[in-house]
Amino acid sequence: MAATESPEDAYTAEPFVPAGADLGALRRAAEGCRGCPLHRDATQTVFGTGRPGARLMLVGEQPGDQEDRQGRPFVGPAGKLLDRALADAGLDPADAYVTNAVKHFKFTRAGPRKRRIHKAPTLREAAACGPWLAAELALVGPELIVILGATAGKALLGSSFRVTQVRGTVLEEEIHGRPERLVPTVHPSAVLRADDREQAYRGLVADLEVAVRALG
Ligand code: URA
Ligand code: SF4
C-alpha cells in the first residue's frame, strides 16, 4: 500500500481535499484521490460538471462504464435518459451542476468478454468520498438538490434514507451546517431496468417537475 493511501479502517478523501480551493482546483485535486480502494481499478476520477453558480445540483450514485472512459458524469445511457427527463420537466440540463456521491467507477467483470458490470458502492465507500461532495456543495451553493436514488440519498441524509418514502417531495434538511432544500427521485438507471419503463419514466419526470416548481 502506498504511503498516501488510507488504511482500511479509515477510508476517507479528507486529506486529499484542498482547503480554500475553487471548483477547478478541487477537480484537479480529485484526480489524485486515494481515499478508498476504488481508484485502483477505475480509469479516472469522474468529478462533477456544470455551471459553478448553478441553481440546481443533481447528485447521482457513481460513474458507469462510459463515464469512467470519458471522465464526465452522466454521459452514458442513464445520462441520456436523465437529460431527456430534465428537458421534459422544463429544465435545461446545461443550467444544472451534475455530480455523483462516489467519484470512481466500481465494477466486476462478467461474461465471456469480461464486460465491466456496475457494482453498487458500499456505504463506507460513499462516506469516504463524502468530503468531495461536501466541498462541491459548499462551492456551488445550489438553491435545490435533486437526489437521484438511494446511494445519493444516504450519502447526503444518512443511512435511514428511503427513496420510495420521500420521492417527489421537497425536504428541508441541514447538511454540513447549511440549510438545504432537496427533492429525491429514483435513479435513471432504475427507469432503464423497470418492467414498465414508460410508467417509471413518467414518475421520474413528475418528481423533476416538483423540483422545477420548488425552484420557482
Ligand atoms: N449513474 C450515475 O449515478 N452517475 C453517472 O454519472 C452515470 C450513471
Ligand atoms: Fe477518492 Fe472517492 Fe475515488 Fe474513493 S471513490 S478514491 S474517496 S475519489
Structural commentary:
It contains 8 helices and 8 strands; from the N terminus they run H-E-E-H-H-E-E-E-H-E-H-H-E-E-H-H. It has 216 residues and is of the alpha/beta class. The protein has a single domain, classed as Uracil-DNA Glycosylase, subunit E (3-Layer(aba) Sandwich), CATH 3.40.470.10. Helix 4 crosses helix 5. The model has no long low-confidence stretch (mean pLDDT 95). The site of uracil has 13 residues, from helix 3. The site of iron/sulfur cluster has 15 residues, from helix 4.
How would you describe this structure in keywords?
alpha/beta; binds iron/sulfur cluster; binds uracil; two-stranded antiparallel sheet; 216 residues; Uracil-DNA Glycosylase, subunit E; 18% strand
The CATH class: Alpha Beta
- Broad structural category: alpha/beta
List bound small molecules. uracil, iron/sulfur cluster
Sum up the overall morphology in one term. globular
